[in-house]
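Entry 12.
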Amino acid sequence: MVDCEIAEALNLQHEFEWVLNQEIHKGLDQVHQILVECARRFPVQLYGHDNSSKQEKFVLSVPSDQLKCLVTLTGDSITHADINFKITRQANNPVMVHTAIHNEYPWKLQQVQDAANHLQQAIYHIDDVGKNYKFKSSDEVLHILGNILGSLQRGRTSLIVPKKKAIDDLMNSRNMKALNPNIPEDTAISFYIQSHKLIFAAYQLTNIHGNVSYDSTHAEYPVPWLNEVLVLFTVGLQLCQQLKDKICVFSQYKDFTVGSRPSSPGPGI
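Predicted 3D structure (tokens):
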């Protein structure tokens, strides 16, 4: 019975060493390829690729001409936009507001750069592990995988969940001050990414007997490269999680380190 337990422990030890020295490196290389492919899709300078001059044009609109925006997206910035949206004035009379974004003062989509930075950090975490590096324990591998997963989750979240800004912050932002011509003081606009779409939103403040609120209208347009980036982020996360799950099987054996051997059980009492 004791010999069977020792043999089972030895087999587990051998499998553990094979996973550390072969399977993890193979898996990390696969994740690395996916992430580099993801980096190639980003319209910014990222990991040796430079698509910052990539230019795309979109029309964001809603029915009844409530809002219409012709956008030129260059890299991670809106370099030109022709913007029209309706607001309501006294007696519910609609008024059309027109403004524009020009090359001299582009509207930067910070979410894109944030996601790219997190992606690059994830790739660097893998690069820091040499192809011939010998892992020493499951904890060491889990720490590295945790860093990669954290970077990928933050990068993906940057694109899926836009940071909420208070209406006052929007109205006083540098982007708003760069609009030409200026828009009415009780209005604001915003551009942001949500999942695979570019969103344009227009806001109008109302003050009724001291109660301040705002109405908003938004239009959206799917951006092809964003969809591809999110798919690759998700694949990278899934592959990383599979590696983590595989190594977690061994993490319960805290005394396992490469080269260690299970000792024979002591005499019974």
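Annotation: The beta strands are 45-46, 49-50, 55-62, 67-74, 77-88, 94-101, 107-108, 187-194, 197-208, 211-222. The first helix runs from residue 2 to 41.
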